[in-house]
Amino acid sequence: MTQLLSRPAATAAPTPATATRLTRPRRIPTHLTLLLVCGLWTVPVLGLLVSSFRPAYEVSTTGWWRAGEGTLTTGNYRDVLTTGGFGTALANSLLITVPAVAAMVTVGAVGAFALARMSFAGRRAVTVAMIALLALPLQMTLVPVLRLYNAAGLTGTFAGIWLVHLGFGLPFAIYLLRTFFAALPDEMFEAAALDGASTLTAFLRLAVPVSGPAIASVATFQFIWVWNDLLIALIFLGGDPGVAPLTVAVSNLVSATTGQGWQLLTAAAFVAMVVPMVIFFALQRYFVRGLLAGSGK
Known about the structure:
The protein has 297 residues and is mostly helical. The protein has one domain (76-291): MetI-like fold (Orthogonal Bundle), CATH 1.10.3720.
C-alpha cells in the first residue's frame, strides 16, 4: 500500500514592506533609550549655554532654568575674547595641538604598519608592550619625565610638550592603526611585491591611501585629547601666559579663593569647544568607519 506524503506548502518570503513593519516595533525601545541618553547629555550643555549669556549676579543667585525671568547679555563673551590673553592662549593651543597630532599620526602609522606587515624578531613582544602601555596610568610617569625635562631644559617649551603628547598618545595610535593595517587583504601587498614595489612604496601608495578612515579616527581622538588637556600643560608648561594653552587660560578665569568669574568660565568653555566640534563634525563619517576598522576581514 503506497502512502502518499503530502509536501507542506512553501511559505512565501516576506516582502520588504512587511519586514520593515515587523522590525519597526523592535526598534522603538532602542530609539527611546537613545533619545533619553541624548536628553541627559543635552541638559547640562544647555544649562552651560544659557549661563554663558547671563549676568554675574543672576548666575550666582538663580538657576539657569529661570533665565527667562532675567536679562541675557553677550558681555561675557566680549570680556572673554578681549581680556586675559585669550587670543594668545588660543594660538598656543593650535601651536601645541596641530604639530603634536601630526607627529602622532605620522609616527603611529609607520610603527603600526611595521608591526602589522613586516616580519622581524621581537615583533610580538613589541606589540604586547604597546598594548600594555595603554593600561599604564598617566600620573605614574609625570614625575620621572619631568625630572628628565628639567635636566634637558625642555620644560616650558613647545618642543617639550610635543614630545610628551607624542609619547603618551603613540600607544593608542599604533594599536588602532595596526588593527586596520592587519585587516587589509594580503593579496594587495603580494601583488605589489610581485610588481617590484618596496616596503616603503607599499606603505605610501597602498596602505596610506586606503587607511583614510583609520587615520582620521586617530587624528580626531588625539586632537580632542590634546586640545582639552590641562594636567600635562600645567606640569610641563607651567602658568607662563606666553606658552599657556586655552585650558590653562580658562582655568585662570575663576578665582580659586572667592569663586568669582564663573559666568566667564561658561562663555570661555563654549569658545574653547568651537574648534574640536568643527574637527569632529568635519571628520565624523571617517571617525565612525575608523572605529570599525579591523572588525571584519
